[in-house]
Amino acid sequence: MNKIYTILSLSCALAIAGSLSSCKNKQQDEDIMIEKIIDKPQSKATSMAAKTTSGTATWAGSKYNFSIRRAADTSLEDVENHDSLFHDNKIELTITRSDGSQFFSQTFTKSSFSGLLNRDAKESGVFISMAYDKSDANHLYFVASIGSPDESYDDFTLVQLIIDRQGATTVASYTPPETEM
Which stretches of the chain drop beneath a pLDDT of 70? Predict the structure, then answer.
């Protein structure tokens, strides 16, 4: 019986030694695999210069101050216009009473006027500007321009932003007043 145990022990020892020697002889793979990181192409879009305008409007016998601040908004989809790529803009309109208290503050984008824009203005127009137009007994009127930011092109759409006494807004098509010659 001792012979059987001895033979079995030798067999196990040889099997273990063989497996250990096969590990020693195994060639190590020297190729290191790394994930290639591909840089996302950077936007080549141009931004219009940030601009702030302010003024005063007389409304229902009181003076109101307004501030219109335009800034490029990179969170919005870039716009291709006349073979150039532009960042679209957002415009913040703030209106304060003569005592300094805030009457109105809202940020607008081109989509604020989408119901009044044709397909071309929606797809390739940039929110260019906003300006005070007039007031009447119940409303303040501002005009917004959506179109080509390239001044060599004269393609834009004008829309009207109307603010009532409670600060509610509506939008409407805008027709410039006829000028007398």
Answer: 1-29, 31-34, 36-43, 179-181
Report which residue type is found at 114.
Answer: S
Pairing of strands 169-173, 156-164: antiparallel
Question: How confident is the model over 5-32, as pLDDT tens digits?
Answer: 455 455 555 455 555 555 455 566 676 6
**Helix (H), strand (E), coil (C) string for 46-72:** ECCCCEEEEEEEEECCEEEEEEEEEEE
d(CA 128, CA 110): 9
Q: Which residues contact 57 (CB under 8 A, 6 or more apart)?
A: 63, 64, 65, 66, 132, 135, 140
CA distance readout (Å), 142 to 70, 75, 124, 161: 14, 25, 22, 5
What confidence score (pLDDT) does residue 86 get?
94
- Residue among 99, 106, 112, 113 nearest 67 (CA): 106
Beta bridge partners of 140: 135, 163
Q: How many helices (H) and strands (E) does the chain have?
A: 2, 10
